[in-house]
Design brief:
By secondary structure, this protein is of the alpha/beta class. It has a nine-stranded mixed beta sheet, with helices on both faces. The C terminus is likely disordered. The N and C termini lie far apart (36 Å). The chain has a single domain, classed as 3-Layer(aba) Sandwich (Rossmann fold), CATH 3.40.50.300. 37% of the residues lie in helices and 18% in strands. The protein contains ten helices and nine strands. The longest helix is centred in the first third of the chain and has 17 residues. This is Chromosome partitioning protein. Keywords: ATP-binding, Nucleotide-binding. It comes from Aliiroseovarius zhejiangensis. InterPro entries: Bact_polysacc_biosynth/exp, CobQ/CobB/MinD/ParA_Nub-bd_dom, P-loop_NTPase, Wzc-like_C.
């Protein structure tokens, strides 16, 4: 483990919290199957296209995006030959910190503004996954995400921590302009929709918007009762 990674404060998640917050990927096995499969497909697409920065985006709130991101932390944690950096850039809510049951001092807004180092703020799961969290709502989220300083900080994180993959949990597309000025900083976006709630029109509009801003890696359908396998999600190429 490099010195930069070793300095990050480690964290663990209890079995009781994992059960409460649907973190089914924590201990691997059959329950983790859908997230391990999603991890593998993300890595295949990333390797084929040379992508390193991947945004997770949903058309609207409550699509299961943050729960998916949290489960992917544990799936990527089992990919021991790969370093992965997860950043919660949905700055208008606590998000990943709440799902993971973690208290944090500060937020990613401070890191992006250069007011706090990631070494002080970031947390580490195992030896190969690092996360950046939010303690609450960040003011001026849109302006922070769209700033040139944010691009500088992302480049510095890439250089200092050398992640093979950087996954960015972004706000929903509907309701804010947070994504529109930011997605030029990523290589691609993965769109997560909710079965039986996200309409075809919403998904189509979201996909078109994303395609104007970055590459669309694919679409994940959460909470689906009709899949091509045994799991409650579906995946398709955009």
């Amino acid at each position: 483990m490099s010195e930069a990674w070793a300095e990050l404060e480690p964290f663990e998640v209890s079995a009781s919290l994992a059960q409460k917050n649907r973190l089914v990927s924590l201990n691997g096995g059959a329950a983790a199957g859908p997230f391990d499969m999603l991890r593998t497909r993300i890595l295949q697409q990333a390797a084929s296209n040379g992508w390193k920065r991947i945004a997770l985006v949903s058309p609207h709130s409550a699509c299961g995006k943050t729960t998916t991101a949290a489960n992917l932390i544990f799936s990527f944690g089992r990919q021991s030959d790969l370093r992965t950096l997860f950043l919660d850039l949905d700055l208008r809510r606590q998000g990943l910190a709440k799902v993971l049951g973690l208290q944090c001092d500060g937020n990613m807004g401070l890191v992006l503004k250069g007011q706090k180092s990631f070494a002080e703020h970031g947390r580490r799961y195992g030896e190969n996954v690092a996360v950046g969290l939010n303690s609450g709502v960040v003011e001026n989220a849109s302006e922070i995400l769209q700033s040139s300083q944010t691009r500088v900080v992302l480049d510095e994180l890439q250089e200092d921590y050398e992640p093979g993959i950087m996954i960015l949990d972004m706000p929903p597309l509907i309701g804010t302009d947070d994504n529109f000025g930011f997605l030029g900083n990523v290589d691609c976006a993965l769109l997560l929709a909710e079965a039986e709630r996200s309409t075809v029109e919403q998904v189509d509009i979201a996909e078109r918007q994303l395609s104007e801003l970055t590459n669309v890696m694919g679409i994940v359908l959460n909470k689906s009762h009709y899949t091509d396998g045994a799991y409650g999600y579906g995946y398709g190429y955009a």
